[in-house]
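Posting here for the record, re: 2-phosphoglycolic acid.
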Amino acid sequence: MRTPIIAGNWKLNKTVDEALALAKDLKGQLSDLTDVEIIIAPPFTALAPLASTLTDSPIVLAGQNCFPSEGAYTGEISPALLRDVGCRAVIIGHSERRQLFAEQDDFINQKVKAALATGLKVIFCIGETLTERNENRTFEVLEKQIRMGMSGLDSAAMTRLTVAYEPIWAIGTGQTASNEQAQEAHHFIRGLLSQLFDVSTAEATRILYGGSVKPDNIDGLMHQADIDGALVGGASLKACDFIRIARYKRC
Ligand code: PGA
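Prediction output follows.
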């Protein structure tokens, strides 16, 4: 019903040559996969070269971030320029943007709206810190991030938005959420989407899990009812790991 998405967030890694080599490997070894959408988000400098390499491939190119306007904004990148260079998607609200660059929910909401208005698909990231989880505030935090970050969207816009639940304590730590913890959060998110939109919108929205996804934990995660794919950081940098993740064991 919901086509799964396996997305690789390369973060600030890979020279152009390294990015090209990895993208060629993925293109060669994933081209027969028809039941899962593959997205890769390389650093900005590799987008243009990768766009030409991937022209005849179903692999979708994504930006890792964008700014909601164009003009005198030194160092930023707009949704329109991402599209121009061949991106069809963008990651917005990643916890590293929230934590290291102090991005707030209302700014993230501006980016989400600008990216959707430009025709990009959006991977909208949310997630709680360890302290928030230990204080039993996970659902409260996720609800605030969704209500504010997705404010003003309608069901039509939601056809191009994917939610990525990424508990911050699991990102890059090797400590993944258990299948049950992830499923519980995803179930909560889908319930909230059905309140904010409607049941069919909630049922159609893909919700990805992110946070130390590896070849050895992807199968269990993908067997959970509300997990529709993964946003993969570290393990997306090695072709064999990312390919194994994309080839997770189907039911
Ligand atoms: P990780 O990163 O897989 O290295 O934990 C995930 C992410 O930040 O999207």
